[in-house]
Amino acid sequence: MSALLQVEDLVVEVQARRGTSTPVDGISFEINRGETLGLVGESGSGKSLTAMSIIKLLPTRAVQMTGGRIVLDGVDMASYSNRQMRDIRGLRIGTIFQEPMTALNPSFTIGFQIAEPLRRHLKLGRKAARARVIELLEMVGIPRPQEIASSYPHHLSGGMRQRAMIAMAMSCEPDLLIADEPTTALDVTTQAQILDLILDLQEQHGTAVLLVTHDLGVVAQACQNVTVMRRGLIVEQASVFDIFERPAHPYTEALLDSMPARNAGKARLPHIAEGVFEA
């Protein structure tokens, strides 16, 4: 079975007055349908640039993808125009951004923003889109969905904004969901709720998930496979079990050593069936 997403020899360069730097330098990985892949590394490792390269939302003109292929379901998107990518974003690839307060437009209501991909990609009319928005808000566990749909982002808590962002990302039931540090700005209890929500929605819709994070606790809970990045390079790729129990690279070992309760094996890998650790 071919992978849903294949990233091959991706290179991202930054043009600056002092010259050119390469924060992402020839990385490759793939994600199968229904799989959650953790893209892990410290701040500055290049993981978010990698994620944004997939959907061509790099932060400035000075940051450009200069090499490699990004293949979605057998089609290379590297040469797609901005117009073609607008047809992909939201419909085939949904994105949960790290900070929903900056990703959501403060000038429009939550309902308007969730309805936008429904009207653009699925061609729903205003009433049908509004009804679907209410369903989506209920699906992500937001109370009083009709009231929230008429609210603006600054009216909502951080956890509520993130749930609204998830509703928007999943509105067209995309094949791939990119979650860029989706729990970083949230308290511990809300983090767990948001992560459980993403996994529940993945199970319902069979969506592949690229989970970008520096939190190995999140990786242990959510991922089947892990790609570890450092300074723009991939230093290790393995199953989540092998990453935690048999790390092959010193950097991976250092990341694990930074975790509290390093030796609590079963607590760190709750989604792996009991008995594995005795095998």
From TrEMBL:
UniProt xrefs under CDD domains: ABC_NikE_OppD_transporters
Compartments where found: Cell membrane
Topology within the bilayer: Peripheral membrane protein
UniProt keyword Ribosomal protein present: no
Ranges of residues in domain ABC transporter: 5-256
InterPro entries: AAA+_ATPase, ABC_Ni/Peptide_Import, ABC_transporter-like_ATP-bd, ABC_transporter-like_CS, Oligopep_ABC_C, P-loop_NTPase
PROSITE patterns the UniProt entry points to: ABC_TRANSPORTER_1 (PS00211), ABC_TRANSPORTER_2 (PS50893)
Top-rank taxon, per record: Bacteria
Molecular function terms, GO-annotated: ATP binding
Gene3D superfamilies assigned: P-loop containing nucleotide triphosphate hydrolases
Keywords: ATP-binding, Cell membrane, Membrane, Nucleotide-binding, Transport
The keyword Nuclease belongs to this UniProt entry's keyword annotation: no
Family: Belongs to the ABC transporter superfamily.
PANTHER family attached to this UniProt entry: DIPEPTIDE TRANSPORT ATP-BINDING PROTEIN DPPD (PTHR43297:SF2), OLIGOPEPTIDE TRANSPORT ATP-BINDING PROTEIN APPD (PTHR43297)
Full protein name: ABC transporter ATP-binding protein
UniProt organism field: Leucobacter albus
